[in-house]
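lol so apparently i was supposed to do this last week
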Amino acid sequence: MQVVGEINAIREIVSAKRQQGCRIGCVPTMGALHPGHISLVEECSKHVDFVLVTIFVNPTQFGEGEDLGKYPRPLEDDLAACQEAGVDCVYTPEIAALYPESYDTWVEVGDMSTILEGDCRPGHFRGVTTIVAKLFNIIQPDVACFGAKDYQQQSILRKMVRDINMPIEMIICPTIRESDGLAMSSRNRYLSTEHRQTALCLSKALEMGEQRLKSGETDISTIEQEMLKHLNSYSDVRPEYAVIRDPDSLNELENPQPEMVALIATYVGQTRLIDNRRITLKNP
Ligand code: PAF
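anyway here it is w/ pantoate bound
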C-alpha cells in the first residue's frame, strides 16, 4: 500500500494506473476510521481495480467552536486499517497544499446546503463540497463511495457531481451500526460510557417516527414533535432537529408519501450526533 502526501505524486500514481487500464475508486475520509469506512472500501473495491482512500481533516467544514482541534487523528491505526482492508493507496495531504495562503475559491450547492445541517452548521457544506471537488479534481476517480449515515452530505455531493458534470459514479453505502443500533461514527469515541448508552435515543426516535407513520398517523408535524419529545426525555440530550422529509429534495412534507427520510441531529452531552432512516409506506 502506498502512502502519499504530495499532489504531484498522487497524480502520477493515478495516471500510471489509468494507463494500465485500471478503473480508479476513491473513498474520501477524515480518518479515525471505523467499520463504516471499511465497508466503503469493500464496496468500492467491487467496482474498481485501484482503491484510493483520502485522509484529511478538512478545516473549512468546521465552524467556530466546533471540534476541529480535538478531532481524532490516529494516523498509524488508520493506515493499518487501510492496509488490512486491501486499500491500494492512501492520500494524506497537508493543509497548506490544499489551502495555500490567499486560497479563496469555493464550490457551493445552493438551497440544499442551507437547511437542516446547513442551518445548524453555517458554511459546513461549502467546506465539504469544496474539499470533495478539489480531491476529485486531483484524483479524477471513476467511482467514489460515501456513507448513507451523512444523508444530507451524500445528497448534496451527488447534486454537485450532477450539476457540474463530473464524470464520477457516486455509490452510497448503507449505514453500519453497532449491535444495539447506534450508527458508527468517528465522533462516538467522544461519548462517556453513560452517554454511549444515552446515544441510543437517536435510533429509538427514528424507529418511533417510522412506527407512527406505519400505524397510520398522517400529521407529519405531530410525529416530528413526538420524536423531539422522546429525545428531550433524556437528561443531557439537546436535539437540534428531528424531521421527516422528502428523500431527494429534503424539502418539508405536507402529507406522508411512499418514500421519506427521517433525520435527527442532537447533542448527547457535548457530542453532536446525526442519524437517519429511510421510510417506505405501501399505502400512504
Ligand atoms: O464525511 C466525511 O468524512 C467528510 O465530510 C468528507 C466527505 C471526507 C469531506 O471532508
